[in-house]
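FORM 12-B: Structure-to-Sequence Request
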């Protein structure tokens, strides 16, 4: 399949203006390994085309949201098949645009396909509709009871911003798109400008699936921009009813503010910034400081640290065991070659971040990745820093995410100080505990705080590697996300794009089929609060 460089507005491609391709209306992806621009040029989607995509989505909404569940599930599976059918064309373009190795891209493609199939199952089961019936009680005294029936419907067209660090699984056909389409919401996606070719290929796969499943034109559109124009126009468009975003805190907060300023404010589900503390409890540290240090170094450098769940902070009680951990982690990091980061911008932000840590009074550098600076222009070299609890408590800058393979170890004088530090942390996606049986008493006292601070608490591992399933939460209090009631990974994500509607005393013939007498759709429902 050829990449055209044009936006996908429903079933058609936006006009590709050859004159503007040479001018300021076009941009190109850059290979982060070679620094070379990649063909073709991508047209920045015009304000008119963004508006048209949103209008088409609004027109599609009523038809799309009432598609039989089987048809909607088949559509999600068809998207998965069409993405897979792109074969090596997709894998190679994605490798060229991201610098990520083939195995990672193929793994991410499998995850993306798995997510779509999981949502197809969720749709078929129909539990997400949350069907509830309180039948009329005309004889009730002192007043008769009305007939009330509840179901959930999609919020409306959703704007999805592709993430730079997951070009497939958190991008055009990623978790937010799959969840929104499963919920019955048309999607207008904004491609991340770091991987526009990958985005167009995947967008065309979704466009094909829309066609194959005979769904309305506006069920899906894809727009491009390497600046904020198209994204702002999307969020401000009155047809858009929710936003899904993964990226920087600055970007996420800007979108939250835009959405809140609309005459009709809308929810923004932004996943932004997390340093994913790792707490090393004393008995675990005494028993296996070296092994934990090695595992930590591997987790920190995975994917050049470009994961939202990267372990950016380690907290432990000071002493020889913690020093063994630091020495082991530093030694392991010293053998890790620097690997390409996704974009020049992310690399630049990483260099500024580690410089901020390096020059902070009271912070020492404990380790660095191997010097392979000649390897490629945007190679990210791992860095490990150490500080004391009182310095960390006083320096807000030390609490900020440094996106990449950098981490800070905080030496705490005692368990109370460690606990107090966790209590004052900002919201996190994950908090990991390394513990042995003898650490359970301390862990038990920490858990209520950890639950308040993070979306996921895990033991003897690291937050990297986010399982896609039914019990996963990839969310957390601000600034990990804009709305800690939600998750961007796993089947629960469908709920972020739904809202309940109650039907009072509607004649059976006017009710949605799912709520009619006799349960003709055969879906799970509750009657008077109990499973029917
Ligand atoms: P980003 O700058 O937040 O951009 C993400 C997407 O949002 C892009 O499509 C961008 O558009 C758009 N955007 C950003 N600000 C916007 C605004 N004010 N209005 C409208 N659209 C806006 O993130 P990034 O490019 O992926 O990486 C930059 C930094 O984000 C990284 O260095 C890292 O710190 C952080 N990051 C964090 C995570 C995480 O999971 N925690 C993941 C990825 C990145 P344009 O690019 O076209 O302007």
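FORM 12-B RESPONSE
SEQUENCE OUT:
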């Amino acid at each position: 399949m050829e990449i055209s460089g044009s936006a996908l507005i429903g079933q058609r491609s936006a006009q590709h203006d050859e004159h503007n391709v040479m001018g300021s209306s076009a941009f190109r992806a850059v290979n982060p390994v070679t620094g070379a621009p990649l063909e073709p040029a991508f047209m920045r989607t015009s304000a008119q085309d963004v508006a048209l995509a949103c209008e088409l989505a609004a027109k599609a909404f009523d038809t799309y949201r009432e598609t039989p569940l089987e048809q909607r599930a088949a559509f999600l599976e068809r998207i998965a098949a069409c993405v897979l059918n792109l074969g090596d064309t997709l894998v190679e373009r994605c490798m060229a645009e991201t610098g990520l190795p083939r195995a990672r891209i193929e793994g991410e493609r499998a995850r993306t396909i798995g997510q779509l199939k999981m949502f197809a199952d969720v749709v078929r089961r129909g539990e997400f509709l949350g069907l509830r019936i309180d039948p009329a009680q005309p004889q009730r005294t002192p007043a008769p009871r009305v007939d009330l029936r509840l179901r959930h419907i999609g919020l409306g067209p959703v704007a999805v911003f592709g993430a730079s660090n997951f070009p497939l699984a958190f991008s055009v056909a990623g978790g937010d798109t799959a969840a929104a389409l499963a919920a019955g919401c048309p999607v207008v996606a904004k491609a991340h400008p770091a991987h526009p070719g990958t985005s167009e290929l995947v967008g065309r796969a979704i466009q094909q699936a829309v066609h194959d499943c005979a769904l309305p034109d506006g069920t899906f559109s894809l727009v491009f921009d390497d600046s904020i124009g198209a994204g702002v126009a999307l969020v401000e468009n009155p047809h858009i009813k929710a936003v899904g975003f993964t990226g920087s805190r600055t970007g996420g907060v800007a979108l939250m503010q835009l959405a809140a300023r609309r005459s009709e404010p809308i929810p923004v589900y932004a996943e932004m910034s997390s340093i994913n503390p790792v707490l090393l409890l004393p008995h675990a540290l005494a028993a296996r400081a070296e092994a934990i240090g090695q595992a930590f170094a591997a987790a920190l450098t995975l994917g050049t640290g470009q994961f939202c769940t990267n372990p950016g902070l380690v907290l432990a009680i000071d002493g020889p065991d913690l020093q063994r951990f630091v020495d082991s982690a530093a030694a392991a990091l010293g053998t890790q070659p620097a690997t390409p980061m996704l974009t020049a911008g992310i690399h630049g932000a990483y260099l500024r971040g580690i410089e901020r840590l390096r020059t902070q009074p009271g912070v020492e550098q404990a380790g660095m990745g191997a010097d392979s600076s000649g390897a490629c222009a945007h190679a990210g070299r791992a860095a490990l820093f150490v500080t004391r609890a009182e310095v960390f408590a006083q320096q807000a800058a030390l609490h900020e995410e440094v996106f990449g393979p950098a981490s800070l170890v905080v030496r705490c004088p005692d368990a109370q100080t460690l606990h107090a530090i966790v209590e004052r942390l900002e919201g996190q996606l994950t908090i990991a505990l390394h513990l042995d049986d003898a650490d359970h008493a301390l862990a038990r006292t920490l858990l209520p705080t950890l639950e308040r601070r993070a979306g996921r608490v895990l033991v003897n591992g690291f937050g990297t590697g986010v399982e896609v399933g039914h019990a996963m939460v990839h969310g957390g209090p601000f600034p990990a996300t804009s709305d800690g009631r939600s998750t961007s990974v796993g089947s629960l994500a469908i709920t972020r794009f739904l809202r309940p509607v109650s039907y009072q005393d509607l004649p059976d013939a006017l009710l949605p089929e799912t709520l009619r007498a006799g349960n003709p759709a055969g879906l799970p429902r509750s009657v008077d609060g109990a499973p029917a």
